[in-house]
Amino acid sequence: GGGTVLRVATVPDGRVFKTTIAFYPSCRYLLARPERRPLVPISILTGAADDWTPAAPCVELAQRWGTPIHVYPDAHHSFDTPGSRLRVREGVAFSSTGTGRVHVGTNEAARAKAIAEVERLLGGI
């Protein structure tokens, strides 16, 4: 998902892309690798309430890289999935609480803003 997008944007082969958009990525991997820098433009879209791939590491990474980040209030993981009720998934390898329990589901306001942002980003390509 989103973490793969970030990694691809930091390797020479990723230069085939004009831009990249990462939805709720895990940014911890790249935070631990300061030598990795993006080679193509990146935009990060994530939820402030995401307890699977928390926003804080992505905010730090975006500041380090000088890349845009959009953190949507009250949005959990998969906030852009249409019509998905908020629910708990269990048995996840990483959760911010360490319990393996995370929340996923649609946030209509965040979804609408993210769609508008993607359209804006891709409209100039």
SS strand fraction = 15-25%
Mean pLDDT: 94
Question: Span from first to last CA?
Answer: 22 Å
Q: Profile the largest sheet.
A: 3 strands, parallel
Any low-confidence stretches, pLDDT <50, length ≥5? Answer: none
- Rg value: 14 Å
Helix content bin: 25-40%
**Classification by helices and strands:** alpha/beta
Number of E-type strands: 5
Strand order of the largest sheet: 1-2-3
Question: What does this 3D model show about the protein?
Answer:
This protein is an alpha/beta fold. It has four helices and five strands. A three-stranded parallel sheet has the order 1-2-3, with helices on both faces. It has a two-stranded antiparallel sheet with strand order 4-5. The protein starts with a helix and ends with a helix.
Provide keyphrases for this structure.
30% helix, 125 residues, two-stranded antiparallel ribbon
Q: Quick summary of this structure?
A:
The chain is an alpha/beta fold. It is built from 4 helices and 5 strands.
SSE topology sketch:
Blueprint: H1 2-8, E1 20-23, H2 28-31, E2 42-47, H3 55-65, E3 69-72, E4 87-89, E5 102-104, H4 108-123
Parallel strand pairs: 1-2, 2-3
Antiparallel strand pairs: 4-5
